[in-house]
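sorry for the late reply, my laptop died twice this morning and i had to redo everyting from scratch. anyway the thing you sent over, i finally got around to it. pasting the sequence first so we're on the same page, its 108 residues, then the predicted structure underneath. double check i copied it right bc i was rushing
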Amino acid sequence: NRGRVLYPNWSNASEFKETPESFDTVAIHNTELHEALKHEWENRIDKTAVKLTSDQRHMCESMNTDLPFLPFSNKEENIAFAECALREDFPIDDPEAAAIEWCKLVDG
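ok and here's the structure:
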């Protein structure tokens, strides 16, 4: 940010010494979730309808996935997840299993 304080009273880049090190994205999802997303990408998702931003493409490249893992971003997704969470067979207490099940229900 070229030494400019963007948010007073917050940590700012100008407070850190410049070093040759860089930051990067690290994949934290497990193999089963990776395979579930890959399966959906290969078998169900309309690839021609997928439009990713440059940031999203970077996330995919960093995590070796075809689609990025993103938080819910609208009311429809929140409602859909709430409906899933209320199902008796939805693995709400297992975040990885819930994510895998969620992959089956959304279109990317």
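The CA atoms of residues 24 and 62 lie 8 Å apart.
thats about all i looked at so far, will dig more tmrw
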